[in-house]
Design goal:
With 404 residues, this protein is α+β, with helices and mostly antiparallel strands. It has ten helices and 18 strands.
Amino acid sequence: MVSVDVRSRTAADIRHVDAHDFFVDELPMLIDARGGLAAPGAIELHPKPTAFAIHGQAWTLSFDGTRFQVRDGDHDAHAVVRLDDEGLDDLVNDLRTPMGFFTGGDLDMPRGSLDDFLDWWVVLRALLDARAVHTTGAIDFADAHGASLALDRAFTIDDDADDVAYFLATAGYVHLTGVFEPDEMRSVSDEMDAAMPGYAPGDGRSWWAGTRDGEQRLVRMQHFQDRSATTRSLLADDRLLRLTQLTDDGHQLGKPGNNRNLVEALVKPIGVVEGISDVPWHKDCSLGSHSYRCCSMTVGISVTGADANSGQLRVVAGSHRALIQPAFVRRSLDLPVVDLPTETGDVTIHLSCTLHMSKPPASRERRVMYTDFCLPEADGGDPGEAKIKQIRERAPTAVSQPPA
């Protein structure tokens, strides 16, 4: 059996960060203690000098190919990131990434680009979390016997669970064929059609997208288990639940933080030109909270199946083991991209740290359901929104002491 639990924080670890103390005292200490974890990867990233400005004060981070430096001011910075107190707290505490600021609409960069922020986010996470920045060749794909892993391998539900688990932990995903019957998937599809009139734009329970022919299409139905008897039956089925036992980590059906949105039913239309339907490359932790929740598992149930022309899933093998930017795929990234074509009733699992995307359908629509297997809550608690608010209101300023 294997473990994919890489959590290093709980809600009890969230702290207020004083900007001056962090940039003047803590970050230089972290550079001295852990700069060796970040520098080899930074040589490949080539991060440009970037300033972080908080309440009129600014500090510029730079890398000369050998050593990181922190200096006052932003006059020679290529990029500038403006943060308020809460934003700095979120960044340091791993509650939000640059993608979290970007999608939340509060990314404030008067100079530079999102890529500049992402580069330094990778470096900061190495320093704060004691993780090495990914370098070319650092990830291998050997099977349990030392031979090269066949990254396009598909399993069945009856294959040896240890083999399936090893593949999942090594590659970051797994494809299981024929888990559910075509008749079951037809029932799910019929129940998706029946449920659609119960959703509306702006209801907080659905996503909508505009197509090039002028239609507004419902593309994601949340809490679908409440509207589909077949889906509720599948959630209690051993064919699904046995997959929670692939690791030694105690994964359980459901989302972190007691989120009751157990199942999302997706329709992937052809010709989407507005709204979110086919999500580009990202990790499921791309907005934040990696160190509190990873690796959970995202489980896809193929209601219609998918191929290169109908919106199949694609993954970057091994990306869950690499400290890289949490969205997009750099041209220089050496990790292989793998297509995961599925038939009706197949199941895919990808870890929350695995880069993945779905291709826009070209010839036929795709239907799929997603559910989650999350890790059991750690003793310090999960950083749900209400808990974070409470912690912020009472948390004293603290400076972590890095190891020697």
